[in-house]
Structures are given as structure tokens and as C-alpha cells.
Amino acid sequence: MNELPTRILVVEDDATIRRVVRMALEAEALEVYEAEGLQRGLLEAGSRAPDLIILDLGLPDGDGIELIRDLRTWSEVSIIVLSARDSEASKISALDSGADDYLAKPFGTGELLARVRSQLRRRHPHDSEAGAQVCFGGICIDLNRRSVERDGAPLHLTRLEYRLLVHLCTHPDRVLTHLHLLRAVWGPSHTEDTHYLRVFMANLRKKIEEEPARPRHLLTEVGVGYRFVP
């Protein structure tokens, strides 16, 4: 991982968990900074300019959701929430506020590191033309021409199917909630129409995935939303 950004900020009030997370990250040659509360977390985020933040929600001087919302007014830094709050409502609230991923406690360091690598990859695409094309699993999307090919042959998508696919593919490895996708693709008047999303995702999988019943790229985050994995 040496070629990837190395500054990670861990905002967590539990010293034991901070130590475990720090040791795991430093074993991957990542540079780690710590904060035990919301205000210190904001200060460190502003001064250290981290490439990724690992954030607990239950902080002694405020809710981590407040930190996410504050950050999103001035920063696009990747945020992984690491919290004992494991309800769907908590996950949706954090993700809709601007978090990129959510891992419930207790957690395994292996899974945490995998999610860290995933978020760091988003910030460093390997393809120099990543801004113009997105290619995965035999699918190639030309964002300039607004066209999609499968194994070199044109693939027909409806206008909304295309918009949904492009929005997912331009946010790789990020959990996008139902509300986020409905706002982005259908508009603010359709935020309750989750059935639209289910129907369109099913159709997209039939066209995109080799095995639609066992998708590899368009993944469901149960009760929360969807994630695109290149």
C-alpha cells in the first residue's frame, strides 16, 4: 500500500480501540493520527488533511454525525464509521450525512483494513483515463459518448438505467443509500419510491452481471442501499 495516500485520522474515545486500530494501520505502513473527541477530530482533520477518517459516532463532546455534516461542508475526505450502533437507522443516518462506509463493533481488523484499502483505491484510480471511461468485468462505459459496451458490443440501457449505473460506478466502493440514489437519479420528488430502485437494479443486473442472482459488481447493502465494486 506504499503507493497510496498514507494519512489516516482515527476519531475514537476508547483508548483501547484506538490502539488496536493504530497498530493495524501502522502495520500497513500508514501514517496514523488520533483524536478522542468531536472538536479535536475537526481540528486534526483541518490541520492534518488526512486521506481517510475512521470515526466513532458516540463521542464524549458530541455525536459523530455532527462531525460528518461539518466535514462535508468543506471536505470530500473518505469517512468510515466504526460504531457500536448497528441498527439500519444509524447506518442510514451516517451514510446520508456523508459517510462513505459503515462497520459495526465488534469488528475484525482484517475487514477494517479491507475497507480502508477500498476507500483509498477510490482516490487513486489506476487508469489514466478513469475520468472518461469506467471498465469492469467486460463492461465499458464511455462517459463522454454516454455509451455502454459489453465485450465490445453495444449494450442498450434506458436513460434511467444509464444514469443509475453511472452514478454507482462513479462512486466505487461507497455505500449509497436508497435516499441518495433516488435523489440523484429520479430527483427530490421521488425519495419515497424505493420500489423504483429495486426494479431498476434488477434490470441492470440482468444486463450487467454474468450471474444476476449472484452479483459481483452491483451489490446490495441490506436495508440500506447499494454498493458498486469494480
From TrEMBL:
Modified residues (4-aspartylphosphate): D56
Stored SMART domains: REC, Trans_reg_C
Secretion signal, residue range per the UniProt entry: none
Domain OmpR/PhoB-type: 131-230
Entry GO CC: cytosol; protein-DNA complex
GO biological process: positive regulation of DNA-templated transcription
DNA-binding region listed in the record: 131-230
Record has Transcription regulation as a keyword: yes
A Pfam short name: Response_reg
Residues covered by the Response regulatory domain: 7-120
InterPro entries on file: CheY-like_superfamily, OmpR/PhoB-type_DNA-bd, Sig_transdc_resp-reg_receiver, WalR-like, WH-like_DNA-bd_sf
Keywords tagged on the record: Cytoplasm, DNA-binding, Phosphoprotein, Transcription, Transcription regulation, Two-component regulatory system
Cellular compartment(s): Cytoplasm
GO MF term list: cis-regulatory region sequence-specific DNA binding; identical protein binding; phosphorelay response regulator activity
Protein's name in the database: KDP operon transcriptional regulatory protein KdpE
Source organism phylogeny: Bacteria, Pseudomonadati, Pseudomonadota, Gammaproteobacteria, Pseudomonadales
